[in-house]
Design a protein that fits this description.
With about 425 residues, the protein is mainly alpha-helical. It has one domain. It contains 20 helices and no strands. Helix 4 runs antiparallel to helix 13, helix 7 packs antiparallel against helix 8 and helix 8 crosses helix 18. The longest helix has about 35 residues. It starts with a helix and ends in a 5-residue tail after the last helix.
């Protein structure tokens, strides 16, 4: 590891510590490295442009962002919540279960944890805290925890990013996330049930059976979206990028023609916001790829691989060690940075140890999603706080049991690779 690389790292961390956006921190760190090495500084721009233009699959990211924003602007979220209340609202901890189930369904449409939390978060938290049914901190905590499922069940923006750095199939990655996502939801529902008993939360008034068909009928267009999206991919009719475009178009069709809840002015606002968000993500991705070029130039992955070989670790011990490291990093870094900058360091070692890269990707992304709700850098905690005004202290205090539930789910995913790999194998995956 050269002095130039150490100074590059120092520049990245120093800039991030004073509040510089992580994308710019990576870019300036990369320029620092090139300047010290005496390389042409235009190499940074060349790597950024080539990396983005050579990655066709990255077009899916802004398209999923557009789809999520259009759904949030319309009444799609409300129809989804009405359906979930009718189905699971009658059980113990009913509105908490509604929160989790609605996140599971919304996950099949947005691909983003932040979109999930923003889309249904404010509505469901208001429902839960009305008339003092649930403590505000608890309602906010379960909303943040259930939003972590969003990028696990397909479609998934983080999985698109992982496909970019690991050369894995986006389609197989999407399939690999289905069972883990459902399993995370099940664990959260079990913990919510136990917490509802401990808090003595009153049972909700069940929706009359005669109203359920009408509520379900109104929600059918929303519920069809994951089926159309995934059916297009696995039926061979569309690539993941084309499916993302289809998702955005279908979300627009629902909001304008079916529910008639999206005005032209609101549409323009959402497109402007989508462009801003996509540009932010694009800067981080591009600058992270510059950093990856530097890491490859320094031969860091090979050095790490030789070091691990000297330790004679088993694949399971390696996975456990890496996941402990990722949990610590998740408290300090955002998920995009971990996926694009940190995970590429370990992919050669995974190959050498015979660890399936599909399994590793799912486990690592689940780990990164847990990082979204762990302080001090739990971005979902800040999103919920900004949406509702509920104090961070309250949210963090109440979220710890749900973090424990998700950590238990993560441990089981590590020990039982079949949870991730069974479904892709049914569709022909042989990795």
């Amino acid at each position: 590891m050269s002095l130039a690389f150490l100074l590059c790292l120092l520049a990245v961390f120093a800039l991030a510590a004073i509040g510089t956006p992580i994308g710019y921190s990576l870019l300036l760190g990369g320029i620092t490295y090139l300047a010290i090495q005496g390389a042409d500084l235009s190499l940074a721009a060349e790597q950024l442009i080539q990396s983005l233009y050579d990655s066709f699959v990255l077009l899916a990211v802004p398209l999923f962002i557009v789809a999520a924003n259009i759904m949030n602007a319309g009444t799609v979220s409300t129809k989804l919540l009405d359906f979930c209340v009718a189905i699971v609202g009658r059980f113990r901890g009913g509105l908490g279960q509604v929160n989790i189930v609605s996140s599971l369904i919304f996950a099949g449409m947005s691909g983003s944890a932040v979109a999930d939390a923003a889309g249904i978060g404010k509505i469901i938290i208001s429902m839960m805290t009305k008339d003092g049914r649930y403590p505000p901190g608890y309602a906010a905590a379960i909303t943040a925890a259930s939003a972590t499922i969003g990028p696990i069940i397909p479609p998934s923006i983080p999985m698109v990013m992982y496909a970019l750095i690991s050369d894995q199939s986006v389609g197989y990655l999407f399939l690999a996330g289905v069972i883990p996502g459902l399993f995370m939801g099940l664990m959260l529902m079990v913990f919510n049930y136990a917490m509802a008993i401990r808090l003595n939360v009153p049972m909700e008034e069940p929706v009359p059976a005669r109203q359920i068909p009408r509520i379900t009928f109104r929600a059918i267009p929303v519920l069809l979206m994951p089926a159309i999206l995934l059916g297009g991919i696995y039926g061979g009719a569309a690539t993941p990028t084309e499916a993302a475009a289809l998702a955005a178009l279908y979300a627009l069709f629902l909001s304008v023609f079916i529910y008639r809840s999206l005005s032209f002015r609101e549409f323009v606002t959402q497109m402007r916001e989508s462009a801003r968000q996509a540009a932010t993500v694009g800067i981080v991705i591009g600058c992270a790829l510059i950093f990856n070029y530097i890491v490859a130039s320094e031969r860091i992955p090979e050095a790490l691989q030789h070091w691990l070989a000297g330790m004679d670790l088993s694949p399971l011990a390696f996975l456990l060690m890496i996941n402990l490291l990722l949990l610590l990093l998740g408290c300090l870094l955002d998920a995009t940075t971990i996926i694009l900058v940190i995970l590429p360091l370990f992919i050669p070692a995974c190959k050498a140890l015979g660890i399936d890269l599909l399994h590793f990707g799912v486990v690592a992304i689940v780990n990164c999603m847990i990082g979204l709700i762990t302080p001090p850098y739990g971005i979902l905690l800040f999103v919920i706080n900004a949406l509702t005004g509920i104090s961070l202290r309250d949210i963090i205090t109440n979220i710890l049991p749900f973090v424990a539930a998700l950590l238990l789910a993560l441990a089981l995913l590590i020990f039982f690779p079949g949870l991730s790999l069974w479904l892709p194998r049914q569709f022909g995956y042989v990795g």
